[in-house]
Hints:
Two copies of one chain form a homodimer.
Chain A: H1 2-8, H2 11-18, E1 33-39, E2 42-45, E3 50-53, H3 56-59, H4 68-80, E4 89-90, H5 92-104, E5 109-115, H6 118-135, E6 142-146, H7 155-160, E7 177-180, H8 188-201, E8 204-209, E9 213-214, E10 220-221, H9 224-236, E11 240-244, E12 268-271, E13 283-288, H10 289-295, H11 314-327, H12 330-351, E14 356-362, E15 365-370, H13 379-390, E16 393-394, E17 401-404, H14 412-428
Parallel strand pairs in A: 3-16, 6-7, 6-8, 8-11, 11-12
Antiparallel strand pairs in A: 1-2, 2-3, 5-13, 9-10, 12-13, 14-15, 15-17
Helix pairs in contact in A: 4-11, 5-11, 6-10, 8-9
Amino acid sequence: xxxxxxxxxxxxxxxxxxxxxxxxxxxxxxxxxxxxxxxxxxxxxxxxxxxxxxxxxxxxxxxxxxxxxxxxxxxxxxxxxxxxxxxxxxxxxxxxxxxxxxxxxxxxxxxxxxxxxxxxxxxxxxxxxxxxxxxxxxxxxxxxxxxxxxxxxxxxxxxxxxxxxxxxxxxxxxxxxxxxxxxxxxxxxxxxxxxxxxxxxxxxxxxxxxxxxxxxxxxxxxxxxxxxxxxxxxxxxxxxxxxxxxxxxxxxxxxxxxxxxxxxxxxxxxxxxxxxxxxxxxxxxxxxxxxxxxxxxxxxxxxxxxxxxxxxxxxxxxxxxxxxxxxxxxxxxxxxxxxxxxxxxxxxxxxxxxxxxxxxxxxxxxxxxxxxxxxxxxxxxxxxxxxxxxxxxxxxxxxxxxxxxxxxxxxxxxxxxxxxxxxxxxxxx
Amino acid sequence: xxxxxxxxxxxxxxxxxxxxxxxxxxxxxxxxxxxxxxxxxxxxxxxxxxxxxxxxxxxxxxxxxxxxxxxxxxxxxxxxxxxxxxxxxxxxxxxxxxxxxxxxxxxxxxxxxxxxxxxxxxxxxxxxxxxxxxxxxxxxxxxxxxxxxxxxxxxxxxxxxxxxxxxxxxxxxxxxxxxxxxxxxxxxxxxxxxxxxxxxxxxxxxxxxxxxxxxxxxxxxxxxxxxxxxxxxxxxxxxxxxxxxxxxxxxxxxxxxxxxxxxxxxxxxxxxxxxxxxxxxxxxxxxxxxxxxxxxxxxxxxxxxxxxxxxxxxxxxxxxxxxxxxxxxxxxxxxxxxxxxxxxxxxxxxxxxxxxxxxxxxxxxxxxxxxxxxxxxxxxxxxxxxxxxxxxxxxxxxxxxxxxxxxxxxxxxxxxxxxxxxxxxxxxx
Lengths: 429, 429
């Protein structure tokens, strides 16, 4: 009897009974759409409708869904070694991944600390900055961050996030953070003056920043030269530079990391999302020798006593290693170049449209504002989302910002489809 | 040339170059041991030495390593759907897992909120408690927790952890927490009186507790009746009960959850570790309808705006669903019963030994203190660890506390080997 009932109900209906979805007000949100399968750039729902995954499933599945090369490597790893405690032990997937990653990380990165997602990657970045100064005997307990930055949802990560529209219940519990505006090119001198004053008054331990592009702030670009000047001043004042490359890392901006475009290199880099190529969760926080050395001591308490159970999970390491192998391949590099060029051309075309504000692109990321007022999670935004889905395209507008971060394996035809549906939106809304 | 060098170096040596391990002071710690493969209860290092995994790799691999049933399910899922955004979308592995889990969760649990590890599971538990009262308009911003509790390493999770020997660099940043001693049976009335006074003075939003057994505090047991009285008083005062079952969940105590032994049921349950059966990371926070309803509103801001990218990762859901299927099977239930009985007998035997203090067991968990003073991460403890490894047994003493949490598939012979090496320790140390 029960089984018959279950079979009659759709997945979307069964979902409602016990599942609480992230970033969702269930009372006002529509029924969840059940996705049955994914392959390459195509998501298929339980009715057989297909959608081009225009944002690589939150910037993860950049080599395409259920990629044969990746899944074979993970399947093989599952037969060999699934999990082992990473305190006291090591294993080949972690060692090989570390050797492969160091080659592509921004200059100066030397040590890797594993964790499980973007929030834990930035929490560890914050802890490295605070404990670096603590271990050196410096009284520095304030973090510096950009306005509208987003660094995750755990308490430390929430604290440094300036984009806290829905953090009302928690903000009394945050760690101390000072904020500066992002450099726009026009305001660079003001930001620098403001920063210099802050540094005089405050005891800043570290600066956490999304280099070049703030993802959750709706793909907001800022000025590379301005950021470079900020980083220079911070470094001169011994403020630990924590680059949050969770969104930008692994080729999205056209280079391996967004920090590659900036002369002043980070002390710490936070990674996740495309790190494991859209297969399974992992985070990673890398750092320079200087940071590591501040924890290396005969005093046990100067170590970083942080550790998640699945730290350096061998399956996740195998996925990440295979992902890096694909990323550095000629094929993927050439794909990224092609998408970059097509995006630039499309952004140029958009610019002259009266309904478009601020068309921009960098690497595979393209974004623009629809010149229509709408709230981040409001009804009009939901209508926009619906329009894309009805036209076979999965995009996830942030308010009136429309953007794509397509998989690197997207076909010319699929990419043109993304562009053309975005153009249709300009006629309809 | 470079490849030749790599081949000549052992994994342990290569590990040193770029890897920073969790809970490790690298200056004083020995070289990491490279594990090459794992099958069932056996870990094999790169020299071919075998070790019985006496703690299920931090309480995760309870159905044995590289378990065929589990790996086949995950391999099949990898061919179907690897990852999809869980905001706006759903999928079969998540729906099926929710239906299977609700059947075995403590009574009253109704909704599941996915995340990636134990720390995020408790962070969400804390956020549910704080925002529950915030949404209801109650001014309650303090969390209640046990002394020596451990709930994770992110800032919120660290805040409620009383076991903060190495948190010196961060404790100025913690959320407000009040602590009570664990009930021992003898002190129950004092703890209750103390709690009642605290409640009068404080505005406590939630109580987070490891039911029955505090894992990181060195498998410290407390009194079920005493805990029940504490939970009753908290519930009477509308304090949200957050059971951290990250370690105790999924059969370890002999029942599905430790909360099963306690009449007063939790409002929120935090899960991870054995949830995904030792294959890959996932966390989960479940709650009652009452908690969920406080977030269900026409006001978008009353939602829980928390979301990790890989939330409800289909591979992790497939592993967890297969894990629950094994857990409820007659075979595994019978194994748990057998280990439980063998442990009780062995604990009885240990009790009379002059070198043993406080021998105890519950389900597959067995622990005792070696009557020798040693530090949690000191040299003597490392010697003890070495002794176990040299005898083919992976145990991970916490100071002078020796404990086992064996996989449910451990053979009679392997279990007897664990016991006999523990007995040898009593002769040597």
